[in-house]
Amino acid sequence: MSTVRCVGGLVHDTGGRLLLIRRGHAPSAGLWSVPGGRVEDGESDAAAVVREVAEETGLTVRAGAFVGTVLRGKYEIFDYACALTGGTLTPGDDAADARWVDAAGFAALDEAGELVPLLTETLAGWDVLPRG
User: Fold this and answer.
1) Whole-number Å distance between alpha carbons of 48 and 106
2) Cα(112)–Cα(42) distance, rounded to whole angstroms?
3) Which of 104, 119, 126 shows the shortest CA–CA distance to 21?
4) Total structural domains in the chain?
5) Is 108 part of a structural domain of the chain?
6) The domain that contains 56 carries what CATH number?
7) How far is the C-alpha of 50 from the C-alpha of 35, rounded, in Å?
């Protein structure tokens, strides 16, 4: 099975909250994750993560350092730290909702089973969980 290259944006605000979107479509429709999606033909990872964050959240970011990779079925996702540069938080594209979550909010979503599988463990391993 060949994989589909995807990107994810790890965006924290100045208070340490993490940007999450509620997925509007499969895979994992209805669950919360970081914004991201497929890399289009000829597109760099940096351009893809900037585009995907804007499409799903209305926010503009600058792509930064590569953080890690996860494999979700046929999707190979390359996650990047991103710096918020502007915009207004508004869910769009295939995001049913978008919000900033602090550590307590993230833990509540995790306890309720509302996060995509292994998100907590992955972000904890990369030391990029929300703070505050």
Assistant:
1) 25
2) 39
3) 119
4) 1
5) no
6) 3.90.79.10
7) 10
> Which of the four pLDDT bands, split at 50, 70 and 90, describes residue 132?
confident
Residue 111 lies in a domain: no
pLDDT in tens, 86-122: 999 999 978 999 999 999 999 999 999 999 999 999 9
Q: Which helix (H) or strand (E) holds 85?
A: strand 75-87
Q: What is the pLDDT of residues 59-90, one digit of tens each?
A: 999 999 999 999 988 999 999 999 999 999 99
Q: Which residue has the tokens 């503009």?
A: 60
In a domain, 116, yes or no: no
Hey, CA dihedral for 113, 117, 119, 125, is it positive or negative?
A: positive
**Structure tokens that stand for 78 in this block:** 């390359």
Measured CA angle at 92 (ends 90, 94), to 5 deg: 145
Domain, as residue range, for 19: 4-102
What is the model's pLDDT at position 27?
A: 81
CB-count exposure of residue 65 (10 Å: 0-12, 13-18, 19+): exposed
Put simply, whether the predicted model's pTM sits higher than 0.85 gets the answer: yes
